[in-house]
Write a structure and sequence with these properties.
about 190 residues; mainly alpha
Length: about 190
């Protein structure tokens, strides 16, 4: 879908979303960090905004956006849990419903293409559906269509990138940021 460098650039583009346009980069990172912390506290697996079937669908779709390669993918970063927290705590009802309705569209497209549900389709079929949606989203943006950034697929991509690059996995293993900078050197001269 996109290179990882493009994904990092896209994270900066989250400010294009109306809901988060007033937040600075550091605030976006902090919101992401808090959402991940809330998702980790939810040991029981109780979902707040998504059903179990929607969560599985979001997990696979996010993994198609940021797949596991030599570095972890969206599933490793628990992006679907992040998205569930964000939808429950940060998005209002109409935005949540638009997103969830879009998941229905994703299912319908998979059934049309593969003759089965998205979660049952092959990885290649899932990727084909996602790439089609991505091309359509690009056309909407290029045409200047009103609300292009509010479209459910734009929300999915933004939340996936945001969730990945604010997760411990994304920060440490992908971006290679040391969470505790520096090192101890007992023999350093003074």
């Amino acid at each position: 879908m996109t290179s990882r460098r493009d994904a990092v650039r896209a994270l900066a583009g989250i400010t294009a979303l109306p809901l988060f346009g007033t937040l600075g980069a550091q605030e976006l990172v902090e919101v992401g960090r808090r959402a991940h912390a809330l998702a980790e506290l939810r040991q029981s697996g109780a979902l707040r905004a998504l059903t179990a079937a929607e969560h599985a669908l979001v997990s696979l779709a996010a993994e198609r956006i940021i797949p596991r390669t030599t570095t972890p993918g969206a599933t490793d970063a628990r992006v679907a849990d992040f998205i569930d927290v964000m939808l429950a705590d940060w998005y209002d009802r109409p935005d949540r419903e638009r997103f969830k309705s879009g998941l229905g569209e994703l299912e319908a497209r998979a059934r049309s293409l593969a003759g089965r549900a998205f979660v049952q389709a092959s990885a290649a079929q899932q990727t084909e559906v996602m790439e089609t949606l991505d091309r359509e989203q690009q056309i909407r943006r290029q045409s200047g269509e009103a609300g292009a950034d509010d479209h459910w697929f734009a929300m999915l991509k933004h939340l996936t990138v945001w969730g990945y690059y604010t997760s411990r996995v994304g920060i440490v293993e992908e971006l290679r940021v040391q969470l505790v900078p520096g090192r101890y050197d007992g023999n350093a001269s003074y």
